[in-house]
Amino acid sequence: MAKITFITSDDETITLEGTSGSVMALAVENGVPGIDGDCGGVCSCATCHVHVTPEDMVKTGSASEIETDMLELDDNADEYSRLCCQIEISDAIDGVVLKVAK
Amino acid sequence: MSDIPNNEPSCVVIGASHAGVNFAFALRREGWNGSICLIDADSVLPYHRPPLSKAYLTSDEGIEKNLLKSKESYIKDRIELKLGVWVEAIDRESKTIILADGTTMAYDKLVLATGARPIMPPIPGLDTAKNLFPLRSAADVANIKKTVAENESLQVVVIGGGYIGLETAASLKKLGASVTVLERESRILARVTAPEMSAFFQKLHHDNHVSVLTEKNVTSIEPASTGNTVVCSDGSSYPADMVIVGVGIHVNKELAEKAGLTIENGIRVNEMAQTSDASIYAIGDCTFHYNPHYDRYIRLESVQNAVDQAKIAAAAIAGKKCSYDSLPWFWSDQYDVKLQMVGLSDGYDEVVVREEADRPNCFSVWYFQGDTLLSVDAVNNAKAYVYGTKFIKGGEKIDKSKLGDPRAEFKPANLVAQ
Fold first, then answer.
1. Among A68, B227, B259, B399, which one is most buried in terms of CB atoms within 10 A?
2. Chain B residues touching chain A at CB-CB below 8 Å
3. B397 and B308 share a domain?
4. Residue B394 sits in the same domain as residue B353
5. Do B102 and B68 lie in a common domain?
6. What is the ipTM of this complex?
């Protein structure tokens, strides 16, 4: 079980609990605004972009090559950017705070 | 029979796949206070379609792990689901739809998200063939999975070397079947890609021990002791315990046609996804719509178009000024290869192949008409996909010689013509 907190672009805070699957799927299932996951989680659409709180990066790990490539020309991308379809839910990421990218 | 009249405006959506479902949630987000009813003939809670021929086919997961939205989401957003329900007709005069059981439903706004159905070609023996399936619905995949589970050394013939056929072939191979793909044209993916891409995928399947045969026109399917024999016009024949048909789709336009809406190569809609009847919208695979990037009317079979038109129709119904201007994009996964495509290549007169030094199986094909970049197919190369998207949107002129030179570093500044 992991508690995951999303901060939306309207500064709304949404905390959700999940046990498995991707963070994107959890967000879509619960209607977190700004996370669309149009491609269903195969890193093809970049509609699940989040910024991980810097101190939580150790839990989530940093972006893989394909994530970095997909976000390369996105002006809002930074070193804390992840496509959250690529973050698997497990106890290891309990407590992470993710800011939904603009 | 008729619904009890009330003052709440009613929006009825026919078709609950990517377009219909995304529309319903988008309409609620736009502030629509009235009722929203989603109707589909499929009785399963709406699910993601692209994985059906890819990861979903090879996984043990049930369809409940592949849903577009959870059951609770529909309840939360007050979206009524009528699943397993067939719509018989639209009465535009009384603004009602008629269901198969004779009941009627009134609408203020009607959205047609009727999609498409697989073409079942008129091949003798196709109707009576054993274990013959198309691949479009969860039920199709359930049938295919069941057949795979029941046969240890399954021989499969896939009719059609398009994306669905090739993805299904790759997935079935992964499940241990021996697979033969029969393509009528002289190369696979002939309708949608350049010969360079066809050659790459031909080799990819060959290397994975899937036999992909071209110029194979299937003329009949005959019963055999264990299953079927698929016979081609050149006299060759192939044994098959299971046959997959992936030769394209028919648009589900009959409801719209009977209702007298304007039909061309699909249900014709304007830039706001509105049909020739101002109260009726159409979205997704079933539409024939204008694309400003290519300055022509097109029909697309894609999640991107379904989702983007859904958002446009929702905004339009909410009274917002909006206009569809998306650049089409697609993807395909076969074996460990990720193909990402942006734009439409129709009308290209030149391709530039960009290879990446020291990275086998990582390349991209750039389609040009004169100096105009039309589209990019990127193989294991998300960078090329992202750059291509930027360049097509920006209408940038590309330095083709640098693009084609693997020694020139692959970055936007290097690729734009000075």
1. B227
2. 25, 29, 48, 50-51, 54-55, 65-66, 69-70, 72-73, 76-77, 303-304, 307, 329, 331, 333, 338, 340, 381-383, 385-387, 390, 412
3. no
4. yes
5. yes
6. 0.93
